[in-house]
Amino acid sequence: MSGINLEKSIGGQPNPVSIKNTKKILFQMENFICKIYLKNGGTGTGFFCKIPFNNNLLPVLITNNHVLDENDIDSNKIINIMINNEVKKIELDNLRLKYTNSDLDITIIEIKPNKDEVHNYLEIDEDYKDKKKETIEFEYKNMPIYILHYPNGELSVSYGIIKTIKDNLKIDHCCCTEQGSSGSPILSLKTLKVIGIHYGSAQNIMLNFGTFIKNVIDEFNKYYEKINKNENEINIIYETNDEGIENIFGEKFVEKNKNNIELFINGNKNVLINKYNLRKGENNIKIIIKNKITNLEYMFYDCKYLKKIEGLKYLDTKNINNFSNMFYGCSSLSDIKALQNWNVSNGNDFNWMFLGCSSLSDIKPLENWNVSNGHYYIGMFRGCSSLLDIKTLQNWNLSNWKYKSMII
User: Is 267 exposed, middle or buried (0-12, 13-18, 19+ CB in 10 A)?
Assistant: First the structure.
């Protein structure tokens, strides 16, 4: 069996776990661990567990950032994995939660349970709770551990010990690991609960490195706490070269929603009047949506000086029914990747949504939109002179579409 020596262990001491029990552990755990197929033809390891999130336990797949990074998640529609010799696919479209951190070398992907699941979930060791860093370092030192992994593509288990947990809660451990072990769970020998995630080894010496599970959970929750806090905050860079112009940014949207939004221009809170001046050069505009709204009509209407939008991908759109004229006249808008995972399933009106977006050449981010409730698409892409065709939207469910000949 690759990656494990059942008779010897660290420092020449006998392995305290019998061959029989080790095989039993391997059999018990094979549905918790998966082999991940990489784009370069190699493989890595991942595991399924439930981590504390928003006072609940969230089912996730965890691996290393260097196995799956943000570009892999955003560019791929599917991740191919193998569990217990069965190849499965994880669909990444419209994931609610995904997280990558290159410093901790972790990637976390939410798993949506279904009746066809062939895997189980490891438990997290939370013995660290309410303990000081110094106590954690002391109590976990020399702790016996298992690593379950796919060295050279074959499921295996290795026995070892934690040498140290450093002050930044990085784990140094001694276990037999080989290429393909990246992303393996580090398990307590006593409880078989997850202590950390293995991510690499030192050359020429039998020393490996991992991330303590507390770090993983803390950083994941901090990240999404920040996103949730700002999910309805949109930041816009708006550039005008016309000195002294009395410019109108999304005038109709601002006026219509003056009781539901706060508008800040160049750091100053703006009274919601019909017209306001933008200075020459770049202007920083921030919109905070205070209440849930159902209508984004005219939000960026006639923003021909619009340069960049940040935060749109976090905007909660599941209750929006009207997207009409939203980017009407945004002639500089060229990148709409932020709209890729929008939930537009309640959208009814998409009339003139991108009319006049002459710099827009790629609408692939919209290909998986659920527009089944949409009725109106009049001129949705009219005037998009850089757009050659809309064939990428051929899988849209347009069964309720009216005026079918007028989308462009």
Answer: exposed
The token pair that represents 90 in the structure block: 């994880």
CA angle 157, 161, 164 (to 5 degrees): 135
The H-or-E segment that residue 27 falls in is helix 19-29
How many angstroms separate the CA atoms of 81 and 101, rounded?
Answer: 21
Is the Cβ–Cβ distance between 387 and 363 less than 8 Å? yes
Least confident of 4-18, 76-90, 292-306: 4-18
Q: Write down the pTM of the prediction.
A: 0.59
Structure tokens at 396: 């849209």
Correct CATH for 10-223 of 3.40.50.300, 3.80.10.10, 2.40.10.120, 3.40.50.620:
2.40.10.120
User: Has residue 18 got a pLDDT over 70?
Assistant: no
Residue 9: which residues within 8 A CB-CB, separation 6 or more? 15, 16, 159, 160
Rg over CA atoms, the chain: 26
Write out 370-401 in H/E/C secondary structure. CCCCCCECCCCCCCCCCCCCCHHHCCCCCCCC
CA dist list (Å): 274 to 45, 129, 235, 254, 256: 57, 53, 20, 8, 10
For the chain, domain boundaries = 10-223
| Tokens 């579409």 sit on residue | 401
